[in-house]
Amino acid sequence: MKIMPPRFAVLVILILIILPSAEALDVRLSGAEDPLLTESGIRRRLYRVPPEMAAGEAGLSGILLKELFPPLFDAWALSLVDGQGRRHWLNGSLAELTAESLLLDRAEGWELWVPEVGRFSQVEAITLTGEALLSRELAVWISWEGTDLLKRELERYAAYFGVTLEVTALPNPESKLISVLRGGGELPDLVMLAASSLERLVEGGALQPLPRMGRKHLSPDGIRAFTLKGKPWALPFYCDSQLVIYNPELVDLSRHRPLTLTDLEREAEALVGRVPVPLAWNAFSVSWLLPFRNSFGGTDLIDHRGRITVHDGPTRQALEYLCQLQDREYFRPMERDAMFSFFTGGRTAIILSASYAIPYLEELGVPFAVAAFPVNGETGLPAAPLLDFKGFAIPKRSRHSRLARHLLSWLTGPGVQQRFPVALTKLPAHAPVAALVRDWNPRYEVLTAAAEAGQIVPPQRAYGVYKNLMWKLIRFALTGQMTPEEVLERGEALLEEALRTPDRF
Amino acid sequence: MFKKICKLLSVLPLAVVLLMGFSCATTAEPQDVDAVAHATPKGSGWMVELKGVRSDELWESGLQEWIEENPELLQTLELEKRGEIRVYEAVPLKIVVAMVDDPDGGMPYSFQQDLWGEGYDLTAVAEDGYSVTLNTGDVAADDLFIAMRLNGEAVTPTLVGHVSSQYWVRDLSRLELGLEPVALDENPFELQLAIGDQEAAYTLAQLEAHPAYTEDKGNYTNSYGNNFQHLWGGVKFVDLINEYTTLAPDMTVTIQAMDGYEMDYSGAQLLDQEEGVWVLAFKEDGAYMPEDPGYIRLVKVGPNNPEITGHVSARMVKKIIIQDVPFEDFKLELVNDGTTEVMDKQTLKSGVTTHRSKVNFYDRKNDRVVSYMGLPLFEMFSHFPGYTRVTVEAADGFSITLSADELEGNQDVILAMYYGDGSELSEREKPLLVAWDKDASLVPAGIKPVRQVVRLIVE
């Protein structure tokens, strides 16, 4: 019998044939002699299903159906046998049949949810008719924190799906990608990247857009961080958010809800004389100026023409505010290493850092607590933390782009997202998972609040140029060599000049 | 089959001529990519961008005209997908690849079968960005086609063929051939030095040819705690600086990055070579580094794989600045017929870079072999044709005289400026030394090692 799938709909045909019931769930590809997994093998892969994916029902354990099958190039039919021995035929595309279909482990047996079709209880057998991908090898470049843990996740993928992975940890995979692209070497199939490098890679023709990749449950901010020219070029994997980190043995910020700039100043004033430096952060970087700019009324840094205005009122007010904090000896600008040294040594009570610092501080065993960024009481606006998304993209010249998409889908799926980002106290890019883990870890309440008030790191090249330029200039204001006004005027002129120079890529 | 290919290729020039609207085929000089691309007439219907050694465009209207004039190009294929036989009308992909697989943008195009067989990446990109890359070495060129009709209906260009349908691409919008050459010479980057009153600049190619170029292992740990180990290639920092001065522990070395970031190092820090030597690296695991963290990065290397923190590993190094330092130079006199030419350290260094030669000298007194690097001695006299003999004088007056007959063309006798590993000569040997290889095929009569060479007299 030839099965021709309709293009836009899923057709369900119920065939009333009574078949003998089976005790264990039988999952297989059509034509295969053996099931793909044993019952215990299936159970080992299960994870908690976020209520948002299960019509609000909490406490369920399950798995996306596609995560039980090997990587497929295409599929056109799904058949299943329920507890009454009835066989159901579902016709459709690969995405329609498996992308969102969920297998749930209920006390009364397996339940399969197929979107737009329905729920099937006490499922005993699932057979998918399709074509497996020929590719079985992938090269993956990873970076940033937790590469060892991420390698273990990738090993898990390799074991589950019978894929050979070559995983390389690199300090700067984006630059390496450009280098290899130029030099004609072996490109990876999947590469980890920061949103801030996206425009350079896209302009250089390094990546392929991913319009067909499912993004239903991914963070809208994360999707925006990797979207340029109206196209998605990568999928978000996790996000680091900026936070206030403080030593609870020296100060208690939890009593301020919300914390305001005035509260912060009062706490700093009380700390003067008790600690050498009450407040510290890397104020040389615009990463720690832009949140304050937001609290003084600053909106999008990059306008619709892709331009940055360096010298605007909110930026000047923010820079003046930091200089005033310093003049009053509440605050000292410090680069990251010095700041952590002061904090862990008890010489600084309050620092601003990103969520990646949390595992580091936990490992050191130093007392610390986290708080969301303060609100400017005068304007009523919050200091909006920068949301630094990391994601995965597929190089245009990947030789295994379909398989890379399969891995990318798995990495951004609910299983991995509950394990990897959470182990490093990062915000999962999978929104229902982010909502789920908020209940597990009290720090996620702060992290989630920060994300909700946050602003994404712009993906445009202009931001990188602006950031490098301001790195050199802000210190002139903080050391009193120039006024904030002079610094921003100079920055305006220099940025215009710098952006006239084409990217060397 | 071979005849079929020959026939296909034989009609190609004519077909392309017709496509281009020219009256006759010409063989043109290789043209600039843009010039060729702009010379291609615009067409109508769908268009596939072509990017290979050069760029071009394939238009639906152009291909239709091409087929009308050469109907044998159009083939009917019966291909199976999802268990169903589909009938495609298609042209061989290789006639399109031929347009951009060599630098010659003029006609007639010729398909580079050898290149295809050797293998390069061919990337087919769909309208929505989806792409498939295959290595041409894995697929016969005759097995791939661009289809224009499916089951009698016109379709947008589709890559199909006698290969798995997993390599097929619908709505083809771009074909990219991985044939772009990359040459180091094209990188205009220069490392700048400002040491005292002296200024210098080096391209990467010059640094690679420098006597202090070395390759060895090293690793660094970044602030996330991740460790990166590589085989680095670059020029030894201290040796490079010592070309212009003698790096002292109390000096301050400022390293300026391409993004303007500056970092100061003490001379003592850079002179600390207990674990390994500091290197201005521009090669990482054999490949030139990209702009960031390259083109040049400061790392420490050595046989024991020294580890440093990422913090001290300056990246994107653009300029090295040392202010208020004395300059240690030397003078070598080249005397001929009453005139004296004075050569300085920079000039000699340039000579060594151009004519670098190494010898393994047997030090009889200490019964050991010492490796030296410099330039063949006879190269010093290249602008004295017909010279008969040369006297080499040391600072203390010691001298030897060598016959031109035994010296000219003799690569085994050198004027050494460095040890074989690129490091500076010892104080008792500086600035220059005459040495010869222990296995030299011709050892000039009367030759002896001459240290602290200050004068060469040519007769």
Q: Secondary structure elements and their pairing?
A:
The complex is a heterodimer of chains A (505) and B (459).
Chain A: E1 11-15, E2 26-29, H1 39-45, E3 47-49, E4 60-64, E5 72-81, E6 87-91, H2 94-99, E7 102-106, E8 109-114, E9 118-120, E10 125-132, E11 137-142, H3 147-161, E12 164-169, H4 173-183, E13 190-194, H5 198-203, H6 220-225, E14 227-228, E15 231-232, E16 235-246, H7 261-271, E17 277-281, H8 290-295, H9 313-327, E18 331-333, H10 336-344, E19 348-354, H11 357-364, E20 369-371, E21 375-376, E22 381-382, E23 386-393, H12 401-411, H13 414-423, E24 427-428, H14 431-437, H15 443-453, E25 455-456, H16 461-478, H17 484-500
Parallel strand pairs in A: 2-10, 11-12, 11-13, 17-18, 17-19, 23-25
Antiparallel strand pairs in A: 1-6, 3-4, 4-7, 5-6, 5-10, 7-8, 8-9, 13-23, 14-15, 16-19, 16-20, 16-23, 16-24, 21-22
Helix pairs in contact in A: 13-14, 16-17
Chain B: H1 2-20, H2 33-39, E1 47-51, E2 55-59, H3 60-69, E3 75-81, E4 84-92, H4 93-97, H5 113-118, E5 121-126, E6 131-135, E7 144-150, E8 153-161, E9 172-177, E10 190-195, E11 198-203, H6 204-208, E12 213-221, E13 227-236, H7 237-241, E14 252-257, E15 262-266, H8 267-271, E16 277-284, E17 287-288, E18 297-301, E19 307-309, E20 317-322, E21 331-336, E22 339-344, H9 345-354, E23 357-363, E24 368-376, E25 389-394, E26 399-403, H10 404-407, E27 413-419, E28 433-436, E29 453-458
Parallel strand pairs in B: 1-9, 10-20, 12-19, 21-29
Antiparallel strand pairs in B: 1-2, 3-4, 4-7, 5-6, 5-9, 7-8, 10-11, 12-13, 13-16, 14-15, 14-20, 16-17, 16-18, 21-22, 23-24, 24-27, 25-26, 25-29, 27-28
Helix pairs in contact in B: 1-3
